[in-house]
Design a protein that fits this description.
It comes from Brevibacillus choshinensis. This is Cupin. By secondary structure, the protein is an all-beta fold. It has one domain: Jelly Rolls. The chain is 0% helix and 53% strand. It contains no helices and 8 strands. It starts with 11 loop residues before the first strand and ends in a 13-residue tail after the last strand. The relative contact order is 0.25.
């Protein structure tokens, strides 16, 4: 057995796109070029608006905050919920109190096959 860390202290600060109080810890990359990381967004943090490079699933595992797609509406999101953006879709996320999310990025993701819609 091997034990690993993916907490905020071993992550990399996200400062692109005017992001604030955001850190990502890489977890794994599959041979099919799927990247999985853990996004730590601190209190009053934002991952700034930018287009998704590939399909992206944002799975909130603790805390709460908001997400948005290409519109201006900030949609509330909390632990146990996920947001999905397709490649090229502009998106942003943020929180007042702090939020942690697994970020799964890759071509051909189909979360609707496994999770019910809100």
């Amino acid at each position: 057995m091997k034990l690993f860390r993916f907490d905020q202290q071993v992550g990399r600060r996200v400062d692109r796109f005017d992001s604030v109080e955001a850190t990502i810890s890489r977890i794994v990359r599959t041979p099919e070029s799927v990247h999985i990381g853990c996004m730590h967004i601190g209190a009053e943090g934002v991952v700034g608006y930018h287009p998704a490079v590939v399909d992206q699933l944002f799975v909130v595992v603790s805390g709460e905050g908001w997400v948005r797609g290409e519109g201006n509406e900030q949609v509330p999101i909390a632990a146990g919920q996920a947001a999905f953006w397709i490649a090229g879709e502009g998106h942003e996320s943020g929180t007042k109190t702090g939020m942690v999310a697994l970020v799964i990025e890759g071509e051909g993701l189909e979360p609707e096959r496994f999770m019910p819609l809100l």
